[in-house]
Amino acid sequence: MVGELGAHRIVLAARSPVFAQMLLSSGMREASCAEVDLPDMSVGAARTFLHCIYTDEVDKATWDDAEALCHLLAAVHRYEMRPLAGRIAARVAALLTEQCACERLMMADLLGIPELRAQVLDFVVSSRSRFSRVQATESYKRLGMQRPQLLLEILARLVPPEKPRVYMSPAISSIVL
Q1: What is the band of 32 on the pLDDT scale with cuts at 50, 70, 90?
Q2: Which of 7, 71, 97, 168 has a Cα at 20 to 30 A from 44?
């Protein structure tokens, strides 16, 4: 155990259906031992997460830190805190840069956040010059290796595929049914 933080089970359950299931359902380990593990979360991130649970707000330092917001977004998404997740996703979109756009796209795709995914795609393809700057980043290379279907989607938005043409032979003048 890296760290231990205190919280009220009723507050956690009221703010998150996942916590409600974990803490208020019989047969769940968390309900009987009154302890919830937060895997893949540092103690600092867990403190920030608890602050958000209790206040429904994100502290200013986290609000201005794109990386911290992404970690927080993953947590609130995991625990199905939808209104807060929507606000955080909107802020992540507002902080997009050419350097981080591909990472944010992969994150939105991985977490299944369609609104953020669409906003990042729109950002990337908003102009050819922006796409050119995105294309020069290391995260673009990672995108191509890790999520090639997203790269195909970007390219299809930049240069939409032509619709297949239907050719009719001049010898065929009518169709008989």
Answers
A1: low
A2: 97
Exposure string for 104-118, b = 16+ CB within 10 A, e = fewer: bbbbbbebebeebbe
Q: Please list the helix, strand and coil fractions of the chain in percent, rounded to the nearest 5, in that order.
A: 65, 0, 35
**Structure-block tokens of residue 174:** 């009518």
Integer Cα distance of 156 and 158 in angstroms:
5
What's the pLDDT at 133? 97
Q: What angle do CA 28, 79, 98 make, to 5 degrees?
A: 150
Between CA 32 and CA 67, with CA 82 as vertex, the angle to 5 degrees is 95
Q: How far, in whole angstroms, is CA 152 from its chain's centroid?
A: 19
Burial of residue 66 (number of CB atoms within 10 Å: 0-12, 13-18, 19+):
middle
**Per-residue pLDDT averaged across 27-44, rounded?**
76
- Report the C-alpha gap between 67 and 48 in whole angstroms: 13
Alpha carbon distance 129, 149 (integer Å):
22
DSSP H or E run through 102: helix 101-111
